[in-house]
Amino acid sequence: MSPANVDPRLLRAFLAVADELHFTRAAARLYVAQQALSRDIRRLERELGAELFGRTTRQVTLTADGARLLPYARRAIEAQDELLAAFAGPDAVTGRPLLVDVNSPGLVHERVLARARELAPQQELMARYESGLTFAAAELLAGRLDVSFGRFAGLDAAVRARLDQQPVRYEPMAVLLPEDHPLADLDAVPLGRLAGESVYAGAGNPRTPEWTDLARLLFEGRGIRVAPPAPLAVGKEEFRRIMTKYRNPVLTGIDFPGMPGSVLRPLVDPVPLSPVSLVWRKGRGHPGIDALRAAAAALAAEDGWLERPADGWLPDADARVMDARVMTDSPTGLTPVRPAR
Is residue 80's pLDDT more than 50? Predict the structure, then answer.
C-alpha cells in the first residue's frame, strides 16, 4: 500500500499516541489493546517509510517526521469526520444521545442542561460527570464526549484551536474550610487572610491542571501556597475523608455542594472569578448543542452570570478569551450578552 492510500484508522492511532505520548493511555482512549495499537503504528511507519515516534522505557516522543505528519493527519481525520457526518443522514447526526459533561453533581452546569432539555425535548441529552476540562477536552477530540464546561484559557493552545466555546459565567470563587478552622466563623474570607496557608487546588490531578494553574495565578504574591498533591479522591465521601485527614482549605467555586464537617465561604478583597465556558469540538453541529448554547445564554442573561463585579479578579488571558466570544450567535435569536465593565 502506498502513502496515498493510508488507512484512516492508522492515522487515528497515530493522533492518539501523538496527543498522549503514552501508548497505554492512547490505547485506552481508542478502546483497543496496546499490542494492537503498537502494530498499527508500526504498519503506518512502514507504509510511510518513516519513524514517527522515539520510544524508550521512560518516554515516547514525536520524531521530526512525526511532527511533520501531525497537521496533515489532523486535517485528514477532520475532513473524514465531516464527510461522514454530511452523508450519514439526519438520524445519524441527531438521533444518538448527546453526551454532556456537567463536571460534578450540584453545579449550575446541571441548570444549563435542564434548560436545554426544556428547549429541545426531542433530543436525548445525557449527563456525564468527568471533572476537569483538560481531561474532557481529550474526550471531546476523541469523539467520546460532545460538550463540557470549564476554563477554556487553561487549555493548551493547540487543543483550543480544535475546539469552540461560548462564555457562560464568571463564577465567584470560594474556600471550603473545616468547620473548626479559625476562618470558618467569617461570613466571607478576605483573600489576604489565607496568607501562610496551603490551599488545595487539585495539584497533581491530571484531569484538572487548568484549575491548579488558575489557583497559582491567584495566589502569586499573596503568600498563599498551593497544597501538595493529595490522593485523588473519587466521590463525595472519599473527598470528605481526604479533606478531613489533610485539613487544607480547598479552593472551589461558590456553587460547590455542601459537605458535612465543612463550611463554604466566599472569597473577597478582591473577588476572584472562575471563567466558565461551554466547550465543544469545532465543526460539531447538533441541535442539542444549539439548545445548550441557547440555554446558557438565557441563564446568563437572567442571572447576570457574565457581569463582572467591580472588585473582580481575572487573569488577562482569561479575560481575552472570554471577551472574544461573549457575543453569542445563538440559533434561537436570544439577545447577545456583554460583560459588565
Answer: yes
